[in-house]
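Record type: monomer structure entry
Structure origin: computed from sequence
Chain ID: A
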Amino acid sequence: MKQLDGTNMKRLHREWRRRTTGRVALLLDNVQIPVNVGSIVRAAAAYRVEHLWLVGATAAPGHPGARKTALGSERFLTWTQTADAASALAEAREDGYRIVGLELADGARPLFEVDLREPVCLAVGHEDRGLSPATLGACDDVGFIPQLGRVGSLNVATATAVALYEARRQEWMTS
C-alpha cells in the first residue's frame, strides 16, 4: 500500500463528491477563538458545507488567526454574520434547514442516533459555555458525541468536524 499521488487523490475525491448531494450548513454561536473558526472553516470546506451563519462574537473567517488555520479554504464558503441567533435561525429555516444542536444537554441523543440526512444546519457553540440558551431552545434536535475517556468534552472545532463527518456518513450509507 502506498499514498495516492495528486491525480489519484483527485479521482478519489471526485468519486465521493458525486455520491454526495445532501445539504449541510453550520451555525457558529459565539465561537470566539479565531483558530477554532479557521479549523471549522477548513472542515466545512472539506465536507461541502453550503453556508455558515456566524452569530454574535464569532470571529470572522477573514480574521488573520482564522485564515492561518483555514489555509485559504474560506474562499470555498459563503457566510453571513449576524448579531443575534434568532435571525440566523430564521434564515436557516427559511432556506429549508432543520436545526440540530451539538451540545452536552439534558435530552440530547448520541449524534449517530440523530437523523442528519435531510437538509440540516448543525449549530455549535462557544468554547466554554456551548450553545446559548436561546439557540439551544430553538433546535429541532440535539445530539452529543459519546466519549469514553476522562475528558468531558471536545474542542468545538474537533466536535464540529466529527459532526460534519457523521452527517455525510449517514448520507453515504443510504446512497
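Annotation 1: The chain has one domain: 23-174.
Annotation 2: The chain is about 40% helix and 20% strand.
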